Amino acid sequence: MQDPFITALNTQKSALGWFGQLSENLGNIYTPGYRSHEVHFSDFINGVQQHNVHRKSKQGKSMPGRAPSNLFIEGDGHFMVRTDDNQVRYTRLGDFEFSAEGSLVNSYGWKVQGYLLGENGQVLPVGGNSNSANPANPSLANGGPGQTPTTEINLWVDPSNGKYFGKYDEYKVQSDGTVVGMANNGKTVTPLYRVALANFVNPGALREVENHMYTASDASGQPLAGTGEIRAGLVEQSNVDLRANVSYLQQAKLQLDVTAKIISTNKNLLEEALRLIQ
């Protein structure tokens, strides 16, 4: 026969973990780029135990950014950024800006990755690699589609005339991620870079190493080409479902109350049994 006291303690421990995770979700409902966490449970002989915590990959709503360099992915994909020690990280949070050196960076100063383009929009090899792979190739194992290495997106501003690359009046990020330089009142449009997007078979299993920054794991699979469209001047909000999380929080509280009552009742019964024995 299962001990109801042990069962209640184990269930209460799981409920506390659930309650804490739900509280974290609700506390970050207005945090841009936050990914909602979902707790899964499994049965075992002495009650319920927390099985794992799954990060929901559902897209959050868009909100106006602070600059045209802020980017939002509509659909599947993650931005690729390269750290100071040359490691690739993946994120949905596109709160990017141009550094003093002209590089597109995130809040950590890590460089957003893209593909260097030719005048006709074709992907050019960088870093001495002669591979000119098709960007539709889904392999991203060694940098980019078709193993084409990515590069930083740099729109250097000429201090003598204040123009991008010394000749473009402004830039624009198109829906396919192409960064173009514009001159002659918009009559001259030249493709410069394409923002690199990566996707995963199981994006919810990415490993978080910094706030909103992830690396691939065995469960997430290796990176594939992202298929989402890019919207400039927007950033992604948290994907927390307020109504669902409030409802789950009420269930977790009820579970805590019930298990606390069971534990209290068992304690009283034990004390009474010891009194009778004495």
Task: Describe the structure in brief.
By secondary structure, this protein is α+β, with helices and mostly antiparallel strands. 22% of the residues lie in helices and 29% in strands. It folds into 2 domains: 4-54 and 240-277, no CATH class; 62-236, no CATH class.
Query: In one word, what is the shape?
Result: elongated
Rounded to an integer, what's the Rg over CA atoms? 25 Å
The total tally of domains equals 2
What's the overall average pLDDT, rounded?
85
Number of DSSP E strands: 19
- The helix fraction, in percent, is 10-25%
Biggest sheet features: 9 strands, antiparallel
Low-confidence stretches: 128-143
Order of SSEs, N→C? Answer: HEEEEEEEEEEEEEEEEEEEH
C-alpha termini separation: 26 Å
Structural class: alpha+beta
**Count of DSSP H/I helices:** 2
Percentage beta strand: 25-35%
Which descriptors apply to this entry?
single chain, alpha+beta, 2 domains, 9-stranded antiparallel β-sheet, elongated
Structure description:
The strands form six sheets. Strands 5, 6, 9, 10, 11, 12, 13, 14 and 17 form a nine-stranded antiparallel beta sheet that branches. This protein has a two-stranded antiparallel ribbon with strand order 1-2. The protein has two domains: 4-54 and 240-277, no CATH class; 62-236, no CATH class. Helix content is 22%, strand content 29%. The protein is an alpha+beta fold. It contains two helices and 19 strands. Mean pLDDT is 85; it is low at 128-143.
